[in-house]
Amino acid sequence: MNDHDEDATAEQLPARERRRLQSSRLIQYLLLQAMIAGACVLALLQSLPGPPAQYQVTAFNLTEARVERAVTLPYFSSLRNAMNDPPRFSGQFVRPAGEARAWSVFLPRFTNGVEVSVNDVVILDSRRDPAANRPDRNTPAIAVIPASVLRDGDNAIAIRLFIWGPITGFLDRIWVGPDELLRPTYDLRTLIFVTLPVVFSSWQAILAVILGIMWVMRRHEPAYGVLAAAMAVGVGQAFLQTPMGETPFSRLNVILISSAPIESGLVLTFALLFSGWKWQRYGWIIFIPGVLLALAGLFGNQAMVRALFLYLAVPMVGVSLLIIAVVTARSMLERRNVASLLLGCAVTIMLTCWVVDLLSVFQMMPNRIFTARLSYSAMLVAIGAGLTWRFARALNEVDGFAGHLVTQVRDAEEKLKASFVREEERARAAALARERTRLMRDLHDGLGGQLVSIVALSERGNGSAGIGDAARAALKDLRLVIDSMDDIGGDLMLALGSWRERATAQLRPHDIALDWRAVTAQGLPVHPELRPWHVIQIVRLLDEAVTNAVKHANARRITVRIETLAGADGLDRGCITVEDDGQGFEITSDGAAAGAIKAARGLRNMRSRAARCGAELELSSCAQGTDQESHQGTRVRLTLPHRFPDSDGVAG
């Protein structure tokens, strides 16, 4: 059961049960955070391993504020600024006679800077290392004592502690002994407090880039952009050094180093947006401490910024962590997602470390190791894990959606195939119905009319000659219908070959010669879309043209010309011309024949058949003696389309 299912189940419970369930979840969440906080406290109370105790120097004479007294390290100074007259620790250590190994002075922790001298020779000044001057870092220091400085037996060591705030000075225990025995502890502390923060800061920079890209691609989620800005500010804080003097960039360094309130405000804004909070007009209040610190760094001095940092930045970070803890706890109880849980655990770790650091500042802890900045890595881990979890969940949702979509597509394909089968069956039935209708119409118009004539002649008792002619015409029409059903593969020349034989037989009794001319070698183009009903319309049109010439023209010769012409659009079109040398007739302005109604009806039928096939029909005729320069007789010119229409659309 996922989170949504659990929420849906909880919504179905009675109000009392829902409150009890919410209380149970809250108690479990608080117990988990308490366990995390307790584990952090136990871990912070543990001391890091140190060098052999025999080389530790703890007893010193301290000269502070012109007062000398004996002290034991570690020592918390009450001063917040001591640069001209810093506290001075004087002590001794013993080097055995005959010691051949190199000796070093190891200082695990100090605030803010130190100067170490052995036998009145300075061997270490941390102020030369800007990375060691940040009070929020725990940078250790080690210095090898030159062999010419060391003496067998007693040696004097002096340490000056420079303090420039914002917190009081501190000097941890020190060790003086063989370098090979002190160096492992120094390397361990360097790894924990120097190398790891750099690694986490680099990771933070990468995370800032990733979040920035996510915000650019998903502008409707400003939380990513806010968190990217917070990560970028944190990277600036991590890699900048504390300026020791006034330089062209010292003010910028101070502003960026003291930008912790701005970073915490941005992280708080991210947590609020991530938990579903909408930005309010009063939300800018959380950035007031950061703005004040930035203005102090821009127009004030470093001492002012350090003082304000202690009173503005530190409380702002704590308040932000408290608000984030409450917000993430509420988000966890309402949404119950992994991202909120991880973020809440990280905030608990940071808040615990912040409290411990605050106790160290007020000298309520036996040591001063600040871990709040180091614990920020827990926030980075939580954010990275939360983003990875959301990405993995999004991938799972995409996979589930893809699987569901594949199933839907498969079902749709099956339905579409069934629909195609039904459509094919309908199309086949419609084609058969159209063909049946065409055959019925052709038989009715042709063979039916001839049979009616035969019946009428037989009933009137006319001569057998008339009945024979009508029977031959009926037989001719029947052959025409049958021939039109043959598969000619789109080659109209095959149908015209059969029509030529019938036309020759029709003209022979009338002593009319048929002149057949194929002007182009291929005759007519092949049309794969040619259907039987196209063929029968063309053949009947040609029959009508020949019959008109026999009945009305008194012609002695009929010429049929077959050719392929190139149109204006560059496409080939077939052309069939039927021309006689008989007497012509007059054609009216609308293209009809003048005179007999029967002739006019025949021309209309010819134009209708041409229009059904998408062809163009041109009719020209010249009465004998009216135009000596032009041809005599009648010419019917049928220009076929480049592509025949699919449907039998009857045109006027």
Task: Summarize it.
The chain is α+β, with helices and mostly antiparallel strands and 652 residues long. It contains 14 helices and 18 strands.
Describe this structure in words.
By secondary structure, the protein is α+β, with helices and mostly antiparallel strands. A hairpin with a 5-residue loop joins β15 and β16. It has helices at 3-11, 15-45, 179-217, 222-239, 250-257, 260-274, 288-299, 302-335, 338-361, 372-460, 464-484, 492-507, 532-553, 597-612; strands at residues 56-57, 59-64, 67-72, 75-76, 88-95, 103-107, 110-111, 113-118, 121-125, 141-144, 153-162, 170-171, 174-178, 513-518, 557-566, 572-580, 616-622, 633-639. The chain has 14 helices and 18 strands. The chain starts with a helix and ends in a 13-residue tail after the last strand. Mean pLDDT is 82; it is low at 1-6 and 624-630. The strands form four sheets. Strands 3-2-5-11-8-9 form a six-stranded antiparallel β-sheet, with no helix packed on it. The protein has a five-stranded mixed β-sheet with strand order 14-15-16-18-17. It is rod-shaped, with a radius of gyration of 53 Å. α4 runs antiparallel to α6 (260-274) and α5 packs antiparallel against α7 (288-299).
